[in-house]
Amino acid sequence: MGLLEGEFSRTVPDHTTANILALYQEVDWLTHVISQVICSYLKQEGHEEHWIDIEPPPVHPGSSHYADIVIEWKLDIYERLALALAMAPAIRPDSLDLFFGLNGMIDRPFTEFGGVSDRTYSGFVPTGQTLNFLISANNPEWHARTLSILSSQHRLMAEQVTELLPTESGIPGLAGVYRLTEHWLNYFVTGEQHRPELSSSFPAHPLDTPLDWSELVLEHSVMSQIEEIRAWLSYGHTLMHDWQLAHKVKPGYRAVFFGPPGTGKTLTAALLGKSTGRQVYRVDLSMVVSKYIGETEKNLSRVFDAASYKDWILFFDEGDALFGKRTEASSSNDRHANQLTGYLLQRIEDFPGTVIVATNLKRNMDEAFTRRFQNMVHFTMPGPEERLQLWKNAFHNVCELADDVELKQIANNYHLAGGQIINVLRQCALTAIRRNERTVYHQDLVTSIRQEFKKDNKLVV
């Protein structure tokens, strides 16, 4: 009994039934393609016909989640074939049984069909070689199409829709299992959106903030530079295409935020995304940097490849760990570090989106990077006016200030960054809670400020 027959079709939502039906139709088309490719390859009756003339199922907007992806991503017939092959074992395993045919000359399976077998699974499991056979067995010049679809830069791979599993050392890469990932199969069937970039293995995670743009407090000249970045995010597409600036400059925008901790670099990056309707992804350096040669580049590639198809802002915090100055290549480690710096430089230059690199010290950055950034924003310690506004914003709707608290005096007397002021707020609020009240007194503030200054070995008079 098929998946859409019997009780099942009466117990699932209509949209799920439509989604599954679309996948079945796509795999049915795949079966006809496989039959024709093998027929043409073995010069059997009807070999003069070509698989590319077998029309895939029509897709219409809204008819299924699979159809919507095909339309939105403008997948061509080769990409649809790859996607159908990857999903076949999960949808209709028997659709691949034709690959179990034996080569009569040597009485063993056809090597060119690829595929792997497993004692726990009786069906045919496709590999990259299987896809290559379908695409280029009768047109060797189309082998490049296979390599393009299987490259990490291709959208199906970058968005982690499909994956080519790694092989053991010495085994051709195309011999790896080629499959549809579980979360995308679930999306195609149920419509439940999964964001693979939120998985524990993805080396970047969303950067959000509950604050709004109006709450961003920066010195005037700094704010002017930030507004320039915001303008690019809002009007960059118009500038590049309508004004045809794409003929003169590289795509994307690159900025460095540098300055002491707590001066608003991370918050500004988050608000730039929030105010322009973009996701900001903080690159997790602990998951990116590896002691093994080549692994750091591979981890970074996953981020850039995925982000190239989305309108993300990539935020590299503590960026000097990746973008630090190059050294004299006196050892293999130095050479590897310099190669990594060169790799990063190239990927950032080619990235069509927005990259923000934050560092506490500008002098730690490699000049080869800084020359290629459109904006170098120095986040200075806030002055008295900015500090006063930060104090007001911090305590607004949180605590009541006693009559002995003069925020203007506090702002003038104590040179604190925004992050430090939030730490003081937290400590004062806890002190008030322990007294079972919401009121914060002058002495509470001084005590909390003193604790904050101790972190930097500073004294409060």
Automatic annotation (TrEMBL):
UniProtKB keywords: ATP-binding, Nucleotide-binding
SMART domains documented for this protein: AAA
CDD domains: RecA-like_protease (cd19481)
GO molecular function: ATP binding; ATP hydrolysis activity
InterPro entries in alphabetical order: 26S_Proteasome_ATPase (IPR050221), AAA+_ATPase (IPR003593), ATPase_AAA_core (IPR003959), P-loop_NTPase (IPR027417)
Keyword Lipoprotein: no
Domain AAA+ ATPase: 251-383
Similarity annotation: Belongs to the AAA ATPase family.
UniProt-recorded name of the protein: ATPase family associated with various cellular activities (AAA)
Source organism phylogeny: Bacteria, Pseudomonadati, Pseudomonadota, Gammaproteobacteria, Vibrionales
